[in-house]
Amino acid sequence: MPSFIDESLIHALLKEPKFASPKTAENIIQKALMLKGLSLEETAILLNCQDKRVLAKLFRAARKVKEAIYGRRLVIFAPLYISNFCVNNCLYCGFRRGNLALARKRLTLDEIRGEVRVLEEQGHKRILLETGEEPKAGIGFLERAIRAIYSTKYGRGEIRRLNVNAPAMSVANFRRLKKCGLGTYQLFQETYHRETYEKVHPSGPKSDFIYHLFAMHRAQKAGIDDVGIGVLFGLYDYKFEVLALLSHALELEQRFGVGPHTISVPRIEPASNAPIAGNPPYPIPDTDFKKLVAILRLAVPYTGLILSTRESAKMRDEVIGLGISQISAGSKTVPGGYKASENRNRKRKKVSGQFSISDNRSLAEVIRDISKRGYSPSFCTACYRLGRVGADFMDMAKPGLIKNFCLPNSLLTYKEYLLDYGDKAAKKLGEKVIKRHLKDITNRKIKEKTIDKLAELETGNRDLYF
Ligand code: SF4
Ligand code: SF4
Question: Where would I find the Radical SAM core domain in this sequence (predicted)?
Answer without folding.
Answer: 72-310
